[in-house]
Structures are given as structure tokens and as C-alpha cells.
Amino acid sequence: MIFCKSMVPYIYSKLQWVLLCCFLFLVHGENIKRSDFPDEFLFGVATSAYQIEGAYLEDGKSLNNWDVFSLSPGNIQNGDDGYVAEDHYHQYLKDIEIIQSLGVDAYRFSMSWSRILPRGRFGEVNPDGILFYNKILDELILRGIKPFVTIYHFDFPQELQDRYGSWLNPLMQEDYVHYAETCFKNFGDRVKHWITINEPNLFSQMAYQIAKYPPARCSQPFGDCPAGNSDIEPLIVMHNMLLAHGKTVNLYRRYYQHEQSGSLGIVLDCQMYEPLTDNVLDQEAAKRIMAFYIAWALDPLTFGDYPSEMRQYLGNQLPQFSSDERKFIRNSIDFIGVNHYATSYAKDCVHSSCSATANRSIKGFVDTSTERDGVQIGEPTGIGSLRVVSRGIGEMVEYLKTRYDNMPMFITENGYSDPQLEGEVEDAIQDFKRIEFHKMYMSSLAQAIRDGANVKGYFLWTLMDDFEWIHGYSIKFGLYYIDRQTLERTPKLSAKWYQDFLKNNTQTPTIRITESVQYTANS
Ligand code: FCB
Questions:
Q1: For this UniProt entry, which residues form the secretion signal (predicted)?
Q2: Does any domain span residue 177?
Q3: Burial of 384 (0-12, 13-18, 19+ CB in 10 A)
């Protein structure tokens, strides 16, 4: 650009406007466009089998862990269950039409283990299960939508729990590998992106530390369960999952990769943590909790062993990999799947007092909170612990970029759940805040990509309001509203916004979400 001194007064006179525009842009995060992302970047929506399929005992599917868990009163809010869910099993065609109408490049969904192998290794493959996923894959491909398939997303045949205690037992590794291979054999010709396991870090804590997910095991002070050991079992469960992942990836690379040429990744719950204070101890605590929650899974799968921080605090409680195992789990991911929703503060417990559940080796002696000096880290959402902190997604990919040598990443889930709605359909459909949430998170992500993060895609959670595990149907993350009586799908404003965004049109109206605003602790 040719620049001469005579332009200075002109630029000066316009400066206030330039600054104002910059300010508005930064505050709104609003002008995010598809073209702010690289050309080959994929946009999609994500779902999981148990959360939408229903048809819980149809066409040969067996009872799974969530079917059984839902039976006991008190486990799921309002006594909800996934028996009908969104009836996607029958309405999949309509749903794929909806997915296509959004204009996405890709669709992330999971397969139901108990539909494909109702008795795990102890029975036959269910042909109707195979048929169902063949129909889905064929439809997606016909419509030019890339399938991203999660092999296992929290649900497995109950028989594996009853026979040998599922993930607490190394036998589960063999069952998992058998199931994954069944998927490769039947679907691998069309699936180029496989996700072995969804959120092993969240699952092992929810199911074996605080007993919120089946098989709901725990010990004091985490809870009062008939059986379990909250300090040890999550570590064993993760160990079995990592070995199951490693064995599966080796099998794929050896026997299927050549013909099917797919890539395999794992998805983690990637909650971000910032230090509660500037104190060096809290800064260390924030690093430590990231190691205990994220590197816990990713270090073994990249470097072949658990993070040294964990070994330091857990000693022999942390399982060991044999040298053979180290070899086959090392470098066993082609990409990292990042499920990111929220950010919290981390506080050191080694040198200051903390709650009984935080002041323990399994927690790395770190406490967490969403509040600093009475100020919330971000606006509340439907789920208490998840606050809107859009910078967190950028911080998270930056962390992964640095620790894992900028390995390819996909944002496999990012979404907003409405705080308690008045119960009116109109409220649910006028979801301005969801739109603003995605714009802000996408802006932060786009900046991280400009700063060099190797992020290849973004999947919005989720296509339609669904069975949100322990929250049942009370928590809504969807682009589509579901009438629970008729199961009719109605697009929310956010569906229209996403469609427009994907066409590079940014006109849909929005209102603002406040970040780091003053919320009193009990508001
Ligand atoms: C994640 C799960 C997903 C969904 C979102 C809200 O932990 O992977 O199934 O429930 O939370």
C-alpha cells in the first residue's frame, strides 16, 4: 500500500470511527462468517445413538446399561428414559433431510453397541442393526454428507455389565475390539472418520466416582453407594478404555487401513481451567487439573504413558502399561476430538484448605469453582457447572496445540443448553442466546486457527433436543425443538441462523450474552 504523510490528518479524522467499529466487533463477536474459517474446514452437527434413537427393544436390540439404569426411580430427572427418545430409529430419513437442509458438510453420530451385537462377543451380529446403520450411511453419502462415526458413546449391552462388570474388567477390551471390528467390516468402506470412544474421562468419573452414570459406583466422601471405590476405579476404567482403543487402532491400521483409508481419533470432554488467582500455586493447580483430566487420556495415546504429574501424586495407584502396551498405544490417534462447553477456575489444595472431595490424590489436590470473589466466570446455562466463557475454546485448542505438537483436532461437540424455560414452545424456539453462544465460541475458535491451531472442523451439539442423560428431556441443546407428545420437529431460530451462517449470510437477528458479568452466587 502506498502511504504518504498527507494521509495522516485524514486517517486521524476517521480514527474514532475505526476504533468504534473495532470495539463493536470485539464486543459482539457478531460478524463471524464461514469465510473466517479455512476453505476445507468442515461444519457439522452431532448426536449420539442412545440420545435420539428410541426403539429400545425393537428389531433385535438388547437392553443396554442406560435402559436398565433408567428403570430405577431417581436416576433420571422426571423419571425420563430413552425408550422412545426422538424416535430417530423410525424417523431417520426425515432427520437426514433436516441435516441436509442445514447445509452441513458432516454429521457425527454414534452406533448402538446393543443394536449391532446384542450380546457382545457372546452372541451373533444382529442383521437388523447392520441394516439400520447401512441405511443411514448410504443416505448420508448420497446427499454428500461426510459421516463421522463414534463407535461407543456411553451405551453398551447390559450383559457385559452383568457377566463381568464391564469396564472394570480387562475382558471389556476384547468385547470392545470385537464390536469395533464388526463396525469396520460392515461400514468401513464408507466411513473415513472413526471415533473410538466418547469422553472416557467424563464417563469414568461420572460412572465410577460420583455415581451419576451407570453402573453408578462410588465411595465416601464422593457419595454413598453400595459398592465402588471413587479413588481407584476411575483409573482402572480409563486404563481399560485406553487399551481397548489402542488394540482397536492397531487392528484397523494392520488389516483395514490399506483398503478403507480412514482415520481414527478419540473424543475427550475438554473442559478448560483457569487459575482462581494469580498466585503461582493456583497456576500450578490449573496446569495439574488439565493433566489429570485431559492428558490423562491423551498422553498415553501420543507418548505411551500417563503424565508425570499423575504419577507424582498417585504413585502406584495409577495403573502401569507394560512395555508392549506402551508401544501399541503410542501414536494411536490420528486426530483429537474436542468436546468443549465451558471453563472453570482451579484452586490449589496442597497448601490451602479445600472440600473433602477435592483434597485428594485422585483429584490432583485441585478444587474447582465457577466463581471468583462473588463474580461468576460466565453466564449460567441449563447445566449448573457449564458457564458461557467463549475464550475457553481458544485456550483449549491452544493447550492441545502446544502439548500435542499441533495434531489435527476437530471440535466434536460445542453447544448451549437453555436455562430453565418458562415451558412455552415459543421460548424454546426463540433461542437468541444459543445463536449468540455459537457466534462467540466460533469467533474465539477462528482466532485460534488464525494463530496456527490445526483445527479441521466444528460439530454443533446438537441437531435436536434429546435425551440428555441424567437430565432426561429437561435440558435442551437442540437446533430443533421436539414436541414430546407428537415428536414433531420444529426448527428453532438457531437452525435458521446455522443455515444462513453456512451460506455465509450473517443477517439473523441476535441479542447479547454477557460474559464475566456480576452474578451473585445464588442467582
Ligand atoms: C457430552 C456428551 C453428549 C451430550 C453433551 C451435552 O458430555 O458427550 O452426549 O450429552 O455432553
A1: 1-29
A2: yes
A3: exposed
Residue 43 pairs in a beta bridge with 458
Q: Are strands 335-339 and 263-269 parallel, antiparallel or unpaired?
A: parallel
Mutation to probe ligand 1, out of 339, 385, 416, 470 (largest number of atoms < 8 A from CB): 339
Cell numbers given for 135: 441405511
pLDDT band at 257 (very low <50, low <70, confident <90, very high): very high
* Ligand 1 atom closest to residue 51's alpha carbon, by position in its atom list: 9
> Of how many residues is the chain composed?
523
The structural domain count of the chain equals 1
pLDDT (tens digit, 9 = 90+) per residue, 209-254?
A: 999 999 999 999 999 999 999 999 999 999 999 999 999 999 999 9
Among residues of the chain, what percentage have pLDDT more than 70?
Answer: 91
Q: Does the CB atom of residue 468 touch ligand 1 within 6 A?
A: yes
For the stretch 74-114, pLDDT in tens is 999 999 999 999 999 999 999 999 999 999 999 999 999 99
Q: Is 28 exposed, middle or buried (0-12, 13-18, 19+ CB in 10 A)?
A: middle
Taking residue 254's Cβ as centre, other Cβ atoms within 10 Å add up to 9
CA distances for 309 relative to 232, 324, 406, 466, angstroms: 17, 23, 21, 38
Q: Which residue has the cell 463421522?
A: 148
Give residue 448's domain range: 32-273+388-503
CA of 7 to the centre of ligand 1 (A): 54
Q: What is the pLDDT of residue 426?
A: 87
Q: Is 461 in the pocket of ligand 1 (CB under 6 A)?
A: yes
| Catalytically active residues, by annotation | 199, 413
Ligand 1 centre and the CA of 107: distance in Å? Answer: 15
Tell me, yes or no, whether 470 lies in a domain.
yes
Domain harbouring 194, CATH code: 3.20.20.80
Q: Whose CA is nearest to atom 4 of ligand 1?
A: 468
- Measure the CA–CA gap between 179 and 446, rounded to whole angstroms: 37
- d(CA 109, ligand 1 centre) in Å: 12
* Domain presence at residue 290: no
Mean pLDDT of 491-503: 98
Residue 57: inside a domain, yes or no? yes
Ligand 1 centroid to Cα of residue 79, in Å, is 19
In the chain the first and final C-alpha atoms are separated, in Å, by 53
CA of 305 to the centre of ligand 1 (A): 27
Residue whose Cα lies nearest atom 7 of ligand 1: it is: 269
Binding site membership of 81 for ligand 1 (Cβ less than 6 Å): no
Instruction: From the CA of 199, give the closest atom in ligand 1.
Output: 8
Residue type, 519: Y
Closest atom of ligand 1 to 468 CA is 10
Query: Does residue 17 sit in helix, strand or coil?
Result: helix
pLDDT higher than 70, residue 57: yes
- 198 Cα nearest atom in ligand 1: 8
